[in-house]
Amino acid sequence: MQKEEKPAEMLNISFNESLVPKVDIGGVGISDIDLQGTIDLFSKVIREGKKVRVCVTPVNNVVWASKDPVLRELYNSADLTLCDGVPLIWMAKFLGSSIKGRVTGLDLLPAFAQTCHQEGFTMFLLGAKEGVGEELKRKFEALYPGIKVLGVYSPPFAEKFSKEENEKMISLVNAAKPDILWVSLTAPKQDFWIHEHFDRLDTGIAIGVGGAFEVTAGLIKRSPRWMQKSGLEWLFRFGSEPGRLFQRYFVDAPKIFPVIFKQRFGRK
Q1: Residue 6 burial (10 A CB sphere; 0-12, 13-18, 19+)
Q2: What are residue 151's DSSP bridge partners?
Q3: Which H/E stretch holds residue 81?
Q4: Which of 139, 163, 142 is nearest to 152 (CA)?
Q5: Does the pTM exceed 0.85?
Q6: Count of C-beta atoms within a 10 Å radius of residue 139
Q7: Taking a C-beta distance cutoff of 8 angstroms, is the pair 91, 30 a contact?
Q8: Tens digit of pLDDT for each residue in 109-132?
Q9: Inter-residue contact 81 to 30 (CB < 8 Å)
Q10: Separation of alpha carbons 164 and 120, rounded Å
Q11: What's the pLDDT score for residue 245?
Q12: Hey, how many other C-beta atoms are within 10 angstroms of the C-beta on 94?
């Protein structure tokens, strides 16, 4: 007989709230911070010489984490678990709470790159398909002459990297010692990789941003602003890659509804 899933409040879940408070959505703590707040906090972290692990978390990742205690702990122990999606803001309101704003990798990467140029912060671009990181580096250098992109590396595709490949990536990052390490390996793969190697990475901020490299480099078109604000960016992305994204948006994401209803109405 299948074991009944316990409500979030019975799982002894704890959140890392050392930087900002987190809002419980399906047992996953989502950081109560907006885009400008994240940019300001990143700058503060770098100036103070701190080291933080950041996850950018959309609805489907919350669904997976609600069923996977290892992934749930990964997100809840992160220094920041950012709200990647307007629907998560709606869900927070439904649960009687609030999140200051949506913080996607698509917004954060180009916005903080500008801050890096202004403040002299350094960065490393890890991941994405071959050539994407180099194209993004060229775009940043054209937009912000003198910006310090200290390294770019695209590992060969693998479901799980070999020990040798992991050592190579760590060595490249540590040789550069960037203030911020941007990782584009898709979620949650990128989040697991950062978590596994975080203690060995010589960087101030390590953050996974999924497909933000391609979009920021101009290789993939982003949805219109009105779709972003209305919570329909997922529909635009599905229209661009229906085969790859059908499972994510039409099978996985809707599973959030019973999780949220149970959280709100299942409490005694």
Answers
A1: exposed
A2: 124
A3: strand 80-83
A4: 139
A5: yes
A6: 16
A7: no
A8: 999 999 999 999 999 999 999 999
A9: yes
A10: 32
A11: 67
A12: 13
Distance (Å, whole) CA 147 – CA 134: 14
**71: exposed, middle or buried (Cβ count in 10 Å: 0-12, 13-18, 19+):** buried
pLDDT at residue 43 in the model: 98
145: preceding bond cis by omega (within 30 degrees): no
- With CA atoms as reference, report the closest residue to 16 among 76, 58, 73: 76
Contact 179, 204 (CB under 8 A): yes
- Extract the residue ranges of the chain whose pLDDT is less than 50: 1-10, 268
pLDDT of 13: 81
Could you read off the pLDDT of 153-187 as tens digits, one per residue? 999 988 899 999 999 999 999 999 999 999 999 88
Give the pair of three-digit tokens for residue 132. 């994407």
**What residues contact 185, with CB distance under 8 A and at least 6 apart?**
126, 127, 193, 208
Q: Which pLDDT score is estimated for 188?
A: 94
DSSP structure class, residue 247: I
Q: Measure the CA–CA gap between 222 and 102, rounded to whole angstroms.
A: 16
One DSSP character per residue, 131-150 reads: THHHHHHHHHHHHSTT-EEE
Here the tokens at position 105 are 């990798």
Q: Is the CB of residue 22 less than 8 Å from the CB of residue 30?
A: yes
Terminal-to-terminal C-alpha distance of the chain: 25
3-state secondary structure 182-216: EEECCCCHHHHHHHHHHHHCCCCEEEECCCHHHHH
- d(Cα 190, Cα 206) in Å, to the nearest integer? 10
82, two tokens:
């950012």
CA 134 distance to own-chain centroid: 21
**CA pseudo-torsion sign 172, 176, 177, 182:** negative
